[in-house]
Amino acid sequence: MAQHDYVIDNQSAPAARTDINNALAAIVSNNSSGSEPTVKYAGMWWVDTTANQLKIRNEANDAWVTIGDFQTGDSFSAGLPAGAINAFGQSSAPDGWLECAGSAVSRTTYAALFGSIGTTYGVGNGSSTFNLPDLRGEFIRGFDNGRGIDTGRSFGSLQTDAFQHHGHRRSTFRTRKSGTDSATVWSYSENIGSDDFDSTEIITTSGGTPRTGSETRPRNISMLYCIKY
What we know:
alpha+beta
């Protein structure tokens, strides 16, 4: 690991040779270090060994652009900020991610993640750890944030299942018979004669074989939710 300011001072030949070799070492190692180079140039490469990311200095020379994960070569997740959540089609968390299982993890080891989500999902032990969100068996719902659709919710809060209040129609009808004629009368106020009778009809429909369970849910497929650290 090496870094250099890429300025070769006037000095003795042996010292200049050492200086040049140090500059070349910084170039071939892409300025590999846990901290960013002190002197920066547009287009400069930097292997950030703290975040395990390969970065390049932007054209304006005022920010670093993340190219990819230096260990896995994953350019997608490397560009995501700490705290991003994604569903994975595998049963264990990939490199750079933690399973959203409510675990208490270190505030120093996962400092970037702690800086992003803090203690929103739990304070951990109150000093050195914090909790990840627990998304096992859960659906995610967009935060209302003042819209008025899902009111009374705080960010990151859990909501239990519910079934919207509703009603079912019950129709009451009466059939009057007179001689050989008959008619269905949809009325509740007519007098009932000796040849009349009232009946109540419960209208039901069939949508196939009922599927019952301990919760109300849509069709779904289970995947692994993970959070970027």
